[in-house]
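Reposting from the mailing list since nobody answered there.

I have sequence plus structure tokens for a pair of proteins and want to know whether others read the tokens the same way I do. The first protein:
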Amino acid sequence: MEKITKAIVPVAGLGTRFLPVTKALPKEMLPIVDKPVVQYVVEELVRGGITDIIFVTGQGKRAIEDHFDFNPILETWLEKSGKTRELEEIRKIASLANFVYIRQKGPYGNGTPVLNARHLIGKDEPFVLAWGDEFFQNPENSPIGQILDVYEKYQNPVLCVHDTDDEGTKRFGIVEGEEVETSIFKISKFVEKPGPSATKSRLAHLWSYVLTPDIFTELERTPIRNNELWLADAVANLGKKRQLYAKKVDGKYFDVGTKSSWLKTNLAFGLANDIMREDIEKFLKNMKA
């Protein structure tokens, strides 16, 4: 079996929850301390074995392309200034993976960017799909590696899931199913944002999938709902034809989907930083006083 090496990362969303800052700045470029969230996404994909990353972009997303490119003027200035650490750090960004950029075309919705990348995926080639504004971290066990291991065993699409609460059932797709191994579920139902009264499950789909190429056919057949093409609808339809699995990922979840989650993520990373921790703890203590 060939190793999965490609990931599609949709980054064409408008980021309306963060207006006005996202009028000119892609939401995926919002910083977590000193790195944009999309860089954390890429780093986690690469750590799991992904070598080719397909960004599906839109108008106003040029900053993402620039970030993952070399910058000779900046690099020359850093070299002349003796800023060796900073130079190595920014050069490393452009070398993380092979980056491909395509523009999103078609109806609004998170299914469209997947369909747009069809021509870059082999006829029989499974691939990873990961959203560009959220990620898991586990220093000991790659989150992407965990779902790839499940795919390797069961040879069927795999959804990355984690525990959520009642509020999460309004924000995320929810998985129902039977636990067939520790933290691995055979999915019986997958519903986008059902709400707490419509499901007993509190397993939320977060961040990533391993998908098979037959998802493209399902996306073509999926009706537009509320003026959007929903990937979750296509995945649910795919589940009627082949078994879907879910992996409850061992790791800590971070996202910038809302203003509060972005602030919490920055605090978490700031407190984990040896240089910043003391200053932030002091600031938070004074805030409580």
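The second protein, same order (residues first, tokens after):
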Amino acid sequence: MSAMAAVALLWRGATGERPESTRNFARLAPMAEALSAAGVMVEPMLFTDEDADFVFDRLVRLDGVLVWVDPLDGTDTRLVLDTMLRRLSAAGVWVSAHPNTIDKIGTKEVLYRSKTLSWGMDTHLYTSAAALHSELPGRLAGGAPRVLKRCHGNGGVGVWKVTARERVAGRPMVRVQHAAPRDFVTEDLPLDMFVDRCQEYFVAGGTVIDQPFAPRLAEGMIRAYLTGAEVVGFARQHPPAAPPDAPGGAAAAIFGMPSAKTMFDATERSLARLRAQLEQEWIPGLCELVRLAAGDLPVLWDADFLYGPPDPNGTDTYVLCEINARSVLPFPAGAPTAVARAVADRLGTTTERQTQQRL
């Protein structure tokens, strides 16, 4: 017996809340419409940690689940959710993005694991606050700022620009700027106090990534949206104008990016070189480095790039800023159709077991 495949669109909500009363219902409507047009039944569903068993019992009757949940949401993390998703996968439900895939490409550690690709920079990995305290001063000694990123995070939370300052009473000092507020506020404090602030990032095996500050940040960021190994669109973001009297100059003051994005189709001519590098070089190289099958790539994910130094011919290069594989919103107009096609191809018709469960 065969039947239409059925998937859930899952995002976080409150107990007893209806999906249509939440912001993501309208934001994900194009995705639901594209899936329905591709012959896939869609069920919007909300997740809370407290209702994990109830949600599991509903999801296990479906063929798949597409998940939109940030790694950090208020005081909530994805620990309970990811445990449930792994149970679903073990029961035969297709999950995108699977937590195992996120562990390989969807945390800041991917910047360290893939630094040998031509999108990489001088990237280091700290596995403890003690390592951060002992190794960071040497990397700051040249005077150039570094960017520290907690392994799990979103919205710039736990992303810091750090610059060495003159010692005070023999204590190493740093100037720090947090990306999350998206403002120009900096703070000078002793290095050991900043490390204490980062202690929580190492809880439960967490890590911190260390990269050079990209000097062309003021020129903006480019986000490439992907379905599997195919680029399905782009977005550009530009930082707000910095005050001319900012410490170090206006360009040096810019750090966090605003959320507003200008979307482009995958065929955008100005980004053709970036698309070719992603599809022909970087995505295959990434999969090989992290030992991930191309078929396990999420049906919707994105990679953020900053401009690197021009090559000898004066052509722009790109450096990887981060990869998002957990909650990609918003997305270009062409993405839902590509996602729906990938979901339909992946699921086909339901299995006999799943069909009987829904009868």
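Reply #1 (J.P.):
I read it the same way you do. The chain has three domains: 6-97+339-358, 105-120+215-325, 130-212.
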